[in-house]
Recover the amino acids of this structure.
């Protein structure tokens, strides 16, 4: 181990300057994040966009780690007969161990250590840290694997770069050819099979690279490694074209997610007296942004009654099942939206203005939306089915409502979610409040959808969150504001959102020209921060049998 | 046990046969020179011995181990210096020594210091800033300091100016007095080989022409000059004669199988009333003669 470590130290010394530059790139990216979170809010949107672009460029430059990985390997060449190490008492296995240790230190540990203060500053919990770390490691592992393949079979940096370029061109070409063949020759490949093929090809690529690297380190027989690469590429192409089996990966992932979600939403915790009633259901063809395999949107309207005056419901992830008469079913995720706001507005008004409650306050109309396949849409229109909706809610109560100064303030941190008023300004009859918010966003959210978000980030279910109102008690008026400008970016697994909200202090005005009374009303209005606290979290199963679609109007 | 033994060792590069049926033995304690023209197969032979290249057929044993199985233990007893070796040029001389030291249990710090003084190397200077001669000395220092059992030098004098070459050879000679080493040396630099080697093997187009001690080699080659007193026919010279020429009453040839008594007897028989002058030959003259003979005769037929 001592000698292995001795080789690692030599490599680190040899690459100290490129490594330093790489570390500075990571640090610079994090500095842009700190700047984005710490700015005083007087900057114009262009400043934000520039920093956003800079952080993205720096994050992209981080991927030059594949070049660094290659440099690390080629510090002791595996091709040719002139390398220094081959005539010294260093076995291929020892060199492999040393290089792997070096790669883990440089591309695993080092970025995590550099980024850790940033994550801690952003309030990451252990779970967020674990996901963000895993994401960082996977990202760098991909770059390193790309670098390793050609680094072990080329005898210099120029050849490494050339073959890497050739590989990218080849991948694009092969992907285009395979895609063309799939679309022309075999157009009815099920999505599940395609997904299985993609994962299998990725797996083969990883196994292939690992095999070539290990083989090359242990034998240095390049003339055998090159055909090995060819064999794996051929195998990958064959799998991409002809793999026939569906591993149901999407279904397995979904069921895993559902199991995770079930853990967090106990059905038994539903507050007493609360009821859910189905109203109607409609079908919307070609929903905007719909997935190719699920082009229809099924909208199911329902009503929630029995909510206490002091409570509000925040809908979380839901999932549906349509059971067909023949026993088969279609199941996936649903998105829930309440029709008349989210119930929080009424609650806040009651709290800050002392508004008298009405019967309507305790009833909420909601809608569950789900993307369904065209075949399911046809079957729904043809006849009844059984529809089940598993709803999940957080029951919230206001824990405090306090006036805040109309100026930039300190950061409010609730687990890994943070927000800060950065700038307040009066503009005509509106109070313009600029806020910066941040929360962890693992990349898996983008890749795998809403379910991953729930699993990956417990902060997605905040036990506490804040809302802001501009309250004019003299006119018995409060305003939640309207977003004037918003920009989002992502720095090292943290989403940063800059948002300027315009609040009005009077019902009057709001036209193309400012009204004097509305301008004056701003003087007597106060900005109130309302803190919501989670009181309960529960799931409810809504079943509709028979489930019939309401025909669409002309 | 011989330090190096090869049996029918061959190595092909695609269609080119770089080494063919090489069978030789390097005895312990010898300074063994592999000689031959460029492309004769010297470097290929050494690379196969060092397991830098696998043999196409045949077997090589180094320190009693199959060359394909040379492990860390054996490598710790072998020193290898080649003109083509890529040293870590970003290191200083001191860093190179510090890097190499832990790999060798037999590393001798005292010898390292002696050699540092002897080679007069600037320890704080990066290798990339050293001259070629200095670089070779640094490589030699990092190799001699652990007292290898076997020192392999592949064209070590190539590209060195005479002064540096002299320094380098002196370094090897002086260092060899400090330990009991076997040296395998490949070179086409005849003068340096003559100074260093006690065994010589000649490779020609991948084949071994001969392998013997320097003393034997120098002893069996003689330049003969015969002054005739009458007419003599030279239509069938013996097998060991080379470059036979006659100018009037003077016959000159090189006897490659010279043995004093036999040579005198044969001279008397062939040239009964002639005066025979015998001159020893230098290694250079022997190799020039062999190279000329090789051009005119079938391959592998010389010596």
């Amino acid at each position: 181990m001592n000698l292995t470590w001795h080789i690692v130290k030599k490599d680190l010394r040899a690459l100290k300057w490129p490594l330093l530059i790489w570390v500075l790139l990571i640090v610079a990216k994090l500095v842009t994040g700190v700047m984005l979170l710490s700015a005083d809010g007087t900057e114009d949107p262009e400043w934000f966009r520039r920093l956003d672009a800079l952080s993205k460029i720096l994050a992209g430059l981080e991927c030059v780690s594949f070049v660094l990985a290659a440099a690390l390997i080629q510090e002791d060449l595996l091709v040719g007969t002139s390398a220094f190490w081959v005539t010294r008492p260093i076995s291929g296995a020892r060199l492999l161990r040393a290089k792997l240790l070096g790669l883990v230190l440089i591309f695993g540990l080092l970025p995590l250590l550099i980024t850790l203060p940033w994550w801690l500053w952003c309030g990451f919990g252990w779970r967020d840290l674990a996901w963000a770390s895993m994401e960082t490691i996977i990202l760098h592992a991909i770059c390193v694997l790309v670098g390793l393949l050609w680094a072990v079979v080329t005898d210099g940096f120029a050849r490494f770069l050339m073959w890497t370029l050739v590989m990218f061109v080849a991948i694009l070409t092969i992907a285009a050819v395979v895609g063309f063949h799939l679309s022309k020759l075999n157009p009815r490949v099920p999505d599940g099979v395609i997904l299985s093929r993609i994962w299998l090809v990725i797996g083969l690529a990883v196994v292939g690279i690992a095999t070539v690297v290990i083989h090359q380190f242990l034998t240095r027989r390049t003339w055998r490694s090159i055909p090995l690469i060819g064999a794996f590429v051929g195998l990958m192409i064959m799998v991409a074209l002809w793999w026939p089996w569906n591993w149901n990966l999407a279904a397995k992932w979904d069921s895993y997610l559902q199991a995770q979600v079930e853990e967090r939403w106990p059905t038994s915790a539903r507050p007493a007296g609360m009821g859910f009633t189905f109203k109607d259901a409609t079908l919307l063809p070609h929903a905007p942004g719909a997935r190719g395999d699920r082009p229809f949107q099924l909208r199911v309207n329902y009503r929630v009654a029995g909510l206490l005056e002091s409570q509000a419901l925040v809908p979380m992830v839901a999932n549906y099942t349509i059971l067909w008469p023949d026993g088969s079913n279609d199941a996936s995720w649903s998105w829930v939206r309440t029709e008349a706001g989210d119930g929080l507005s009424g609650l806040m008004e009651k709290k800050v203005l002392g508004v008298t409650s009405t019967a309507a306050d305790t009833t909420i109309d909601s809608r569950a939306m789900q993307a369904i396949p065209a075949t399911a849409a046809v079957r729904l229109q043809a006849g009844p089915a059984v529809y089940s909706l598993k709803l999940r809610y957080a029951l919230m109560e206001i824990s405090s409502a306090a006036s805040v100064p109309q100026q930039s303030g300190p950061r409010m941190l609730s687990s890994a979610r943070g927000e800060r008023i950065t700038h307040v300004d009066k503009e005509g009859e509106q109070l313009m409040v600029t806020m910066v918010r941040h929360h962890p966003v693992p990349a898996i959210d983008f890749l795998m959808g809403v379910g991953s978000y729930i699993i990956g980030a417990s902060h997605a279910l905040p036990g506490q969150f804040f809302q802001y109102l501009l309250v004019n008690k003299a006119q018995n008026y409060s305003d939640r504001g309207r977003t004037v400008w918003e920009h989002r970016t992502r720095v090292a697994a943290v989403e940063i959102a800059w948002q300027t909200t315009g609040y009005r202090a009077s019902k009057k005005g709001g036209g193309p020209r400012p009204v004097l009374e509305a301008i004056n009303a701003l003087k007597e209005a106060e900005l109130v921060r309302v803190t919501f606290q989670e009181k309960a979290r529960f799931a409810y199963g809504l079943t509709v049998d028979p489930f019939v679609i309401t025909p669409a109007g002309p | 046990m011989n330090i190096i033994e090869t049996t029918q060792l061959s190595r092909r590069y695609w269609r080119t046969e770089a080494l063919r049926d090489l069978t030789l033995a390097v005895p312990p304690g010898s300074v063994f020179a592999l000689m031959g023209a460029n492309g004769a197969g010297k470097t290929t032979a050494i690379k196969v011995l060092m397991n830098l290249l696998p043999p196409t057929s045949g077997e090589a044993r180094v320190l009693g181990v199959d060359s394909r199985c040379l492990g860390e233990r054996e490598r710790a007893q072998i020193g290898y210096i080649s003109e083509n070796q890529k040293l870590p040029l970003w290191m200083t001389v001191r860093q190179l020594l510090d890097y190499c030291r832990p790999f060798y249990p037999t590393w001798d710090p005292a010898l390292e210091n002696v050699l540092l003084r002897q080679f007069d190397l600037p320890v704080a200077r990066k290798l990339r800033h050293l001259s070629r001669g200095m670089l070779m000395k640094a490589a030699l220092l990092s190799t001699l300091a652990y007292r290898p059992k076997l020192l392999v030098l592949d064209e070590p004098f190539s590209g060195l100016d005479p002064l540096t070459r002299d320094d380098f050879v002196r370094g090897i000679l002086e260092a060899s007095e400090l330990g009991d080493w076997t040296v395998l040396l490949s070179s086409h630099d005849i003068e340096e080989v003559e100074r260093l080697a006690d065994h010589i093997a000649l490779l020609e187009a991948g084949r071994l022409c001969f392998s013997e001690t320097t003393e034997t080699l120098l002893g069996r080659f003689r330049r003969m000059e015969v002054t005739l007193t009458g007419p003599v026919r030279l239509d069938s010279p013996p097998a060991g004669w080379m470059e036979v020429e006659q100018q009037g009453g003077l016959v000159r040839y090189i006897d490659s199988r010279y043995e004093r008594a036999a040579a005198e007897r044969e001279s008397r028989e062939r040239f009964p009333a002639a005066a025979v002058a015998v001159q020893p030959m230098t290694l250079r003259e022997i190799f020039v003669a062999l190279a000329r003979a090789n051009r005119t005769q079938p391959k592998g037929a010389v010596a």
Remarks:
- Residues 299-303 of chain B have pLDDT under 50 and may be disordered.
- The first helix of chain B runs from residue 42 to 49.
- The interface with chain A takes residues 47, 50, 52-54, 71-73, 75-76, 78, 80, 82, 84-88, 90, 95, 99-100, 102-104 of chain B (CB under 8 Å).
- The first strand of chain B starts at residue 4 and ends at 13.
